[in-house]
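Sequence in, structure out. Go.
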Amino acid sequence: MQIVGFTKSIGGAVMTSIGRGKKIARTRSGFLRCAPGEMPVWTDRTGEKKSVLLRPPFALEPVDDKVPMASKFERYELSTADGTYDVIVPKKDAELMRHVFGGSEAEKRDEAGRV
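Output:
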């Protein structure tokens, strides 16, 4: 299964000049490949970067920041064994993301009925 998304940090930041010597990290499109029994893999859509294997343990935290000009997308912070990354995915794939990467500890407690 593939989840289309965007990131600034998985596979390393790609810096874009915005003038006057300033640079910002550019959001890149790609997809997460999720298959039973395999580690999730991020692949850039442009093919500029090679695929990045995402290793457990995982923690997925929703981020309250809105995604500019993309009301049907949500922003998450994905923690893996190799670091913490930003991920923007369609809202309709949120449940799949939680299934693959697990939710935050607070979400797990809420689902279990504990506060």
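Check: Confidence is low (pLDDT under 50) at residues 106-110. The CA atoms of residues 66 and 74 lie 7 Å apart.
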